[in-house]
Structures are given as structure tokens and as C-alpha cells.
Design goal:
Length: 218
Amino acid sequence: MGQSSPLSVESKEFGYSGWQLAGKRLLDFVAALTLLVLISPLWLFIVLWIRLDSTGPAIFKQTRVGQRGKTYTIYKFRTMVQNAEALMKDKLEKVNDLESFVFQEKDDPRITRSGHFLRKTSLDELPQLINILIGNMSLVGPRPEVPELVKLYTPEQRRRLNVLPGVTGLAQVNGRSELTLGETMTYDLEYVRSWSFWLDLKILWKTIFVVFTGKGAF
């Protein structure tokens, strides 16, 4: 943890040109729509598995902070017991050090049996394809954070809100859940400073290998 990113990128001031924005949005929309059609049978299987495994809805909805600080509803397959969010709120209210904070913990008792598999394979993130179609998320970008943590950001850390949040990102291919929030923030700010269409493609390519190995996921 804490090592420099293996994806070598040149740091520069962040900025999109018009054609870059259009290209990124086109890739997001076409990829999300195609994947939703292809995985519809898998989607149905996961929904049935979650409902049989534990009580509660199959889709988990939560408020997250997106681009320019706007809040929106994120969609995921539920991987925890039904009252898990209430239990997490107590933990979030006591956070005073973002650098060392770890959002997810190994052997979390709130995670269901199906949830362990869905997290390990990142299948729990599939409903965020809907967020991409809506336009409040991208395939690649910093992972969206909860409002309780965003309010503790420094002005520099708020720069990660300059871009759309993503389903995967630089931090996700360099440690995922093993990273502290401070380490994740370092990767996110590097992504914002160094964004390019080519960098997005490299992150997507590396995400495939990270997902298949399950490294850093719990």
C-alpha cells in the first residue's frame, strides 16, 4: 500500500476539451447499454440469490456525492444485512481523520453469504450501469463518497469532485479495499490531474485483471 501507481501518467492541470467529453460520454453510454443487455440473465440470477439468501430488497440505494458536489442516488446489489447502513452511520459520525480511515473491513459481520461473492467479483457494482446511463457516473473516475466524509474534505481534496465519479478508477486497480481513504484520495487526485482518454482505457483494461484475481476486494 502507498506505493506509486504502476500506471505511469504525466501530471498536468486538469481539463477536458469538448471532443474528449463527448468521447468519454459516448463510450460510457454505449458500453453501459450493451452490458445491461448482455447481463440481463445474470442480473435476474443475482436478484433471486440475494432475496433467497437474506431478507430485504436486492438493490441497495444510497446517497453519494458526485461531480461538483451534487448528491445523487447510487445503485448496487445489496451485499449486507438490511440495517447495515444504520450501523455504519455511527462509525461515520466519529470520523475525524480521513487519512487513516478504512471504509471496508475484512470479515465484516454485516456482509451476507451472497455478498461475500458479489464483492469479491465486483458483481455488486453492476447496477451502477444505470447510473452511467442516467449520466451521474462514468465507467472510470474516483469512487463516489458519502456526504458524511465529503464534508471533511480539504479544499485540495475537493478537486476529486471536478470529474464524474466512476465504477472503477486508479485507486481500484491499485489496492481497492486495502487502501486507506488517504491513499485512495492520493490516487483520485492523480487521476484528476492526469486525465486522458488513453488513461481511462488503461484503467478499464487493468480492471479486468483485478476483478478476475479478486485482489484487494472484501
